[in-house]
Each structure stands twice: as C-alpha cells, then as structure tokens.
Design brief:
2 domains; four-stranded antiparallel sheet; about 325 residues; alpha/beta
Length: about 325
C-alpha cells in the first residue's frame, strides 16, 4: 500500500503540472465548468492504472526562503520581563527591561497579521545545513534569564499565536523565587519554546577566568540537558559581554550558536554564528518603532504543495516552485 501511494505521489507531481500555480499566482484552467483538481488528478491516476481508492488530494500554498543563501536577514528580538513595568524611580533597570503584557500581545498580533513566522535556532541550523527552507519573513523571539512571567505571561501569549520562541535560562536561578521551575522548563520546551543556556550564575564572561568560564558554560549545558533530555546547543552571553577567548570557549564547550545583546545588524551567517546580534525590545516602543527595527524581509518564493492523504497515513507534500520571487 505504501509503495503504491508513493508511486502515485510521484505521478501526481507530473500529471498535475498544468494545474499548479503559475507565476501570475492563479491556477491554470480551461474555459467552462471543470472538475476539481482532486477529480482531475484522480482520473489521470486511474487512467495510469494506479489504485486511488481512499485517497484525498489537497492543495496548499506556502511561502518559503529557499535553501542556499549564505547570509539571511533574520531579526532576533530580545525580551526580558513581560510584565507591567515597575516605577522608573524605584527600579530603573527593571523598568528598562520590562515589556507590558498588553504591548507584548500587540507586538505578537502585529507579527501574525503581517505574515512573520517565528522560528527557533533548530530551524536556522536546518536551513544552513541545506535540509529545510525557512518560512517567509522569519523572526526569532528570545527571552532572557527565566523570570516567572516567561511561563505565566509570555508563554500563553506565544502559544495563543502558535509562535515558537527561544528562552535563555540561567540554570542556578531555576526554582528560585520569581523564576521558572524545572517542570515549567520541560513543559515549555515540549510546546514550542526552545530552552537554551545563559550560564550558571549570569557571569560576566568577558572578565571571567578561563576555568570559571568553562564551568559556567559546561555546567549550565549539562544541567539543562539532563532536565530536558535533549542536547542544548544555543547560548546567550550574559549582558552581552564577551571576548575573543570567551567566543572560542563557547564553541569548545559544545554550543553551536551564541547571541549578544544590543545591535542593529539583521544579517547573519554561519560564519558569525557565535556573535549574532539581537534587537532589543525594552518596552514603550510604538508599533511603528517596533516594525522599523525588523528591517526589510528577504526575498521569498511561493510554492504550491499537493498533499495526498490515505486512510493508512498522511503522506508528505510534493511541491513545485512557482518561480516567482516576491520582494
């Protein structure tokens, strides 16, 4: 059964060519009443002698950034607290790090309505490895330190939008008052929030000794991996402070990427993956200011995917590019 479905899928890619989206973004069709694409494809498969009973055909359109780019335009947004900001006079640092829940939700609404697609660093890895394309208008949402509002406020808002994110966790803070617990980390990691490392004690790696730096890097990584039951490959420098030695030690400790703090550079490559910059979202920005910080998205391609479903199992999509690049 599975082999015949696979063969049908291959034939489908050929026989449906005339019905795939063309560069004008319309479906080619003769004049006058016509059967659905599913019926047309089914009839041609029957004519070929292939069994199609129990098959359903679905057409969907996807917008992707094809693999092969050495540099990608990828805004990496940096959040800390998602809470009502404290008094500027009593807690200046906390005020500058706090985005209100209403503003955070409005920013997520804005991303969703304008077709942005949050990804995590596993998606970026797969792209640079040539394994998977990125969705159109990709963006990475990161949240630092592991405050409790990551779980109580940011996580539900992200989940309501179907958004991925990356949370950089200071491992010794987990379970302390005002911070997330280990069980909350596991729950988030299994539901769209990639948990990543932010050292053991939020140490300044630009000034730490080599021995202390390696302890901060390795012990945090091991604790998170033990807690989550999977490799932890991504890292954020506390307060964005690093040195050339610290960069080398991050790589030596087994990480695959590292991010800094402030920065307006939106273009990233595999070569500079240990010093990727982020766009600070400090709270109080208008949506116009928020949107300007995202820059211009990469060109992307629209493809049409034909999905073949059977009673036994859903088959993977078979797609053909429209050869249309959109700015």
């Amino acid at each position: 059964m599975r082999s015949s479905v696979g063969a049908a899928a291959v034939l489908l890619t050929v026989v449906a060519t005339g019905y795939i989206l063309h560069a004008d973004d319309t479906i080619a069709a003769p004049i006058g009443p016509q059967p659905s694409l599913s019926h047309v494809v089914g009839a041609q498969l029957m004519a070929s002698g292939m069994a199609i009973q129990g098959h359903e055909f679905f057409v969907s359109r996807l917008e992707i950034v094809p693999v092969g780019r050495r540099n990608i335009t990828l805004p990496i947004l940096m959040y800390h607290y998602v809470r009502n900001p404290p008094s500027l006079l009593s807690d200046w640092a906390g005020y500058k790090l706090s985005v209100s829940p209403a503003d955070f939700a409005a920013q997520m609404d804005w991303l969703s309505l304008r077709g942005f697609h949050p990804v995590d660093f596993n998606d970026v890895r797969a792209y640079f490895a040539g394994k998977e394309p990125l969705p159109a208008r990709p963006v990475v949402i990161t949240l630092d330190d592991g405050y409790i509002d990551l779980y109580t406020t940011a996580f539900p808002i992200l989940a309501a939008h179907g958004f991925k994110a990356v949370a950089y966790i200071v491992s010794s803070f987990v379970g302390q008052p005002r911070y997330v617990t280990a069980s909350q980390l596991v729950q988030m990691d299994r539901n769209g929030i990639e948990i990543a490392s932010h050292t053991v004690d939020h140490a300044d790696l630009a000034r730490s000794s080599s021995a202390l730096t390696m302890r901060e890097l390795v012990d945090s990584k091991r604790w998170l991996e033990h807690t989550l039951g999977r490799p932890v490959l991504d890292f954020a420098y506390p307060s964005g402070k690093f040195s050339a030695r610290a960069v080398a030690e991050v790589s030596q400790a087994g990480y695959d990427t590292a991010v800094t703090t402030d920065g307006t550079l939106l273009d990233h490559s595999l070569a500079d993956r240990f010093v990727w910059t982020r766009v600070r979202v400090g709270g109080g920005e208008t949506l116009s200011e928020f949107s300007l910080n995202l820059g211009q998205p990469m060109p992307y391609m629209t493809i049409t995917a034909i999905h073949i479903n059977t009673a036994a199992a859903a088959q993977p999509p078979h797609a053909r590019p429209t050869l249309q690049l959109l700015k």
